[in-house]
């Protein structure tokens, strides 16, 4: 459970797709002028990531990685289809994006028209493909963690585009200096938001090192050292007197 919570918060705040690795910036900048549009695109990204990352995890585990085909028989144990990762991952993503596009067009034509070309472009959104590639590179061990990573990464991207859309709607009525209007102030706000999101790293920076074994030697004060010296002198004197008397 703790592993799931750590991955969830880390994927949203610390390893945010926009602020940490700068993926999906085209849609982030182009579809963040209105909150309503940003919410629709963000929800679509969450859905696509939540579905494609676990599906691609299954493809990676049982088809792509070295020795993954052993379940077909021992003669397939030496096969390595990892060179097909990009093709299969993109095919899975394109299929799910097409499904999302059909659903949005059917049930929300206004949102479909407002998103325009950026809805089908989710298929080539580097944040979507990045989720599957990061899942593969980090060797996430279970399907549940892969689903968690997909959902949390999507939520992180959703929060990023929602926050910048809300701020851009507000600063529209602000007295922004002329050279900074438009993308200039947007880049500055994005940088400040990135710093703010990275500050959440303190939530997960505990002492992960195993506690060192306590040393048997105790730290002695100067007074204790003097007392020990006096005792050693007395013992030596007693042993010398015993030798002389004998």
Assign the structural class, choosing from mainly alpha, mainly beta, alpha/beta, alpha+beta, or little secondary structure.
Answer: mainly alpha
What is the helix/strand order? HHHHHHHHH
Low-confidence sequence ranges:
213-220
Domain module tally: 1
C-alpha Rg (nearest Å): 30 Å
Oligomeric nature of the chains: single chain
Beta-strand portion reads: under 5%
Count the E strands: 0
Helix content: 55-70%
Tally of individual helices: 9
First-last Cα distance: 75 Å
Name the features.
65% helix, 9 helices, 246 residues, mainly alpha
Explain this structure.
This protein has 246 residues and is mostly helical. It has one domain (2-203). 65% of the residues lie in helices and 0% in strands. It has helices at residues 2-14, 25-30, 35-64, 85-107, 109-115, 126-137, 143-171, 183-198, 222-245. The longest helix is centred in the first third of the chain and has 30 residues, at 35-64. It is flat. The termini are far apart.
């Amino acid at each position: 459970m703790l592993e799931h919570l750590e991955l969830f918060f880390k994927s949203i705040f610390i390893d945010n797709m926009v602020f940490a690795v700068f993926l999906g910036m085209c849609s982030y900048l182009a579809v963040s002028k209105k909150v309503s549009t940003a919410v629709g695109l963000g929800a679509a990204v969450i859905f696509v990531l939540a579905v494609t990352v676990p599906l691609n995890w299954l493809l990676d585990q049982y088809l792509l990685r070295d020795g993954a085909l052993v379940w077909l028989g021992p003669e397939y144990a030496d096969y390595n289809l990892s060179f097909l990762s990009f093709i299969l991952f993109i095919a899975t993503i394109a299929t799910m994006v097409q499904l999302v596009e059909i659903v949005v067009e059917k049930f929300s034509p206004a949102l479909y028209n407002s998103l325009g070309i950026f809805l089908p472009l989710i298929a080539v959104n580097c944040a979507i493909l990045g989720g599957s590639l990061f899942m593969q590179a980090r060797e996430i061990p279970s399907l549940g963690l892969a689903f968690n990573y997909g959902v949390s990464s999507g939520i992180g991207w959703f929060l990023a585009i929602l926050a910048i859309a809300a701020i851009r709607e507000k600063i529209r009525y602000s007295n922004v200096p002329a050279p900074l209007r438009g993308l200039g102030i947007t880049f500055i706000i994005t940088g400040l938001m990135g710093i703010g999101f990275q500050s959440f790293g303190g939530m997960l920076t505990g002492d992960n090192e195993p506690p060192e074994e306590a040393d048997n030697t105790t730290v002695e004060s100067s007074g204790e050292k003097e007392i020990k010296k006096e005792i050693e002198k007395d013992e030596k004197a007693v042993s010398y007197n015993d030798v002389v008397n004998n």
